[in-house]
Amino acid sequence: MPEARSAPSLAKLHAFDRALLRLAGKMGLCVEADDEAVARRKLSSIVDHLNHKAEWVAVVHADGNGMGKVFERFPSLMAAQGVRLAADYVRRYRALSEGVDECARDAFRSALEKLRGAGWSAGTDEPPVLPLVLGGDDLTVVCDGELALRFARDYLEGFTRLAGEHDAVGGVLEHVEDLRGLGACAGVAIVKRAYPFHRAVHLAGELTDEAKVVKKKLGQDRSALSFQVLFESAYADLERLREQQTVDGGGTCLTGQPYVVGDGGDAEWARHRHWRDLERQVAALTAREDGGLVISAAQAHELRSALFRGREAAQSRFQVVSTWLGKDAVQGLAHDGSLFWQDGSTHRTGLLDALNAAPFLRSKDAS
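Structure tokens predicted for Cas10/Cmr2 second palm domain-containing protein (367 residues):
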């Protein structure tokens, strides 16, 4: 029976097939013309999974650091290198732009290949990762929530490394004062499948902006990631969410974000804020012994509840768990014996981040 559809809906349906093939090309699935049918089937299975099967869906947004500053300084850089002809200037400008685009594309494909190698397929022919924007230094993908944090970390590491190695990118930026290289920042919003998509995109953008503080603290050649697992269905405003993670009259913050991905150097700000710090705490929360979790779900819930009662309550609960299980069993949760570290006038902890990330960072065999 005929179904009434609006002109915009019909236009979207008409463009859908071509859009899938374009995305397949970006993902490296459709190199030859003969691959089109296979690529279309693979991407259709990903779309179906994200629309109807995934329990958690994530929006990952990543953005290069300070590209505006790079292009702003480009004329003076070319002048300092003796470039006078317009044709040479345009050629180098195009090489830089295309080089950044190439780094982003290759970093995406590398991160996707790592997911393939780890066997993350969720019943689809390919890991359920769907790029929506992949051009220049911008990346926006929708993926299964279980893949999001690993994918984002691998993408940032790959982009930073490739940009540093690329002659037209790193080879140019090493001559620019205060730049040294090109990093990137990412925001990951993990939400339930039915959550409004545009709100998840907005939250991912806010998280990316939060991660951008790494430029001021460590330099724009470093990379960082912020994430949020949204358990509620209300409108997600990052400022409100971070306020909810602040206790003790503002003296204690229950998040360590953003987390530095890749080399963080020896700066004090990066201490306890490296991605490996988060992974260490997740490893402690998900460690198993004799077929069961070392830190039980009930104990993890008690630690989470204590965090929102303040620093003293959380530290007391941690001491109880430490005494019950033994210090060796829970040492991965602590920083020098404490759940908290001093950040200026504020105490911080990454435990809440780890509790939220644990279901999405646990090993495939443990899931």
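The two ends are 44 Å apart (CA to CA).
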